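Hi Y.,

Following your request, here is the sequence exactly as I used it, all 311 residues.
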Amino acid sequence: MPLQYVSLLNTSFSGSTLVSMLLCSQPRIVGFGDTYVLPDPAHYPQHPCTCGRWFDECPPRIAIRDAVRSGGIEDYDWDRASATPIPKWLPRKIRQNWPFVRPSSLPLFRAIPTSVRNRIYRRFYLETRLMLKGLEETGDYDIYFDGCKSLVRAELLRTAIPDLKVLHMIRHPGAFLYHFHRLGQTNYDKYLRRWRRYNHHARQLGRLLPKESYKAVTYESIVQNPEAFIEQMVDFMGMTEVHSEDCARIRRPQTHIIGNRMRETVDHVLDYSNTWRGKMPADVEDKANEMIARDEWLASLYEGRSVTQGG
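Below is the corresponding structure, written out as tokens. Let me know if you'd prefer a different format.
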């Protein structure tokens, strides 16, 4: 049976590494966290992969590399792979700022007929099919959990993978603002707009999918009750197995995650969801709370109510 492809969508600094590690700690799920973050020895002084190997010695990554190369893309390599179609010959700095990776380009992609998109981005789609083929051939996995957070990637795959599923995780905007606050970057209105744009783009993409293929959850609900979250994912992702004991434990050697430094030490899901409160000016916290209250579908999530696609 083909692998189930699940895309995680959430803003940066919102806990995607932890959620990727939690899900990929379960049997028969594989993912790489921020898949297309290029390994940087300055950031990862020892091994960038949680399985304990350098990224090009990681077994599932080797399976993908070999499958992609044998399928006709002979120059494929992880250190040149990208989440979206970007000319490979461009310098790294330009690739990082390529305009067609931004959410603002989504209307352009949707305006291109699927048949034309398939021709223009032939290599991108072929690379994705071969990647999944390599993982399928290992026989170890049923689900590929893509934690790269790229809205453009999810949009391009929406018309290529019929059963694509999207897990949209929202973290309170106050926590998002606190990341920048700690760095001394106090243009709070700018970052609130960024948070809102991303989540509304993700919500809009979810409306284009079948009802059963999109699920919105809050980061806070995950870390406050990880066992209940895993139970939800059994049905949503089609998980065939879960660990019968302590399913909230992070099993690092079993995962293959690239992400922030937290992944090197965490071994259990802990609830630090509200540690940002009281650490910024009161009016900033008020603005963050207002951002949740102003949209009914966001308010519903934070009140613990389910959200439908039309909501």
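Residues 37 and 258 are 7 Å apart (CA to CA).

Thanks again,
Q.
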